[in-house]
Fold this sequence. Notes:
Elements: H1 14-39, H2 57-72, E1 83-86, H3 92-97, H4 100-124, H5 128-150, E2 168-171, H6 174-195, H7 197-203
Antiparallel strand pairs: 1-2
Amino acid sequence: MGNRRTSGTNLEDPARGYADAAMEFPRLLTLLLIVLEWTRPGLPSPLRPICDLRVLEPLILEARDAVVAMKSCREGCRLSESVTVPQTAVEADVWSKKTALEQAQEVQSGLWLFQQALNLLQTSVTNVALHNHIDNTIRNLLTINAVLRSLNIQEYTPPANVAELQGTWRVSSATDLLQVHFSFLRGKVHHLLVDAPACHQAVS
């Protein structure tokens, strides 16, 4: 399994190289916007760049592509054990009653759970093509955490025991894991960015 990325030849596949470069672009764009936001002069602006939800759209599309790829996989694409994932449903009335800190911690705990689950998936899956999607998904989690830090959302401290977290459930399928991740981005992550106080302050 340690050689899962090694094929019978050392030649790089040009098509795969172009595909990897294309998938890197959304992350680079998002990180560039973060850097620009951190370094721009204190001039009035109608909207902070990172508050533009279009920066989240490429990450959601990549999450969807990972689900599609996993569904089409027939060999070497199983989880070795079940994993804990967050609930993804967002009830507007319940969500609106939470404080900004509670909303942020709920999203951050979910991102942390996905990090643990995807690390396990990364070691469980032997299908080389799928590893590209898994690696991209893990990098996208880091990008989203960087986005949250750019909005002055404090860094998350993981619990000592996963059982301490509320609003979670377990999945045993790799496809289910990626589907939940996709739904989480479209749901709670999207809502958190919409409701972020820093974004509202930018247009007030």
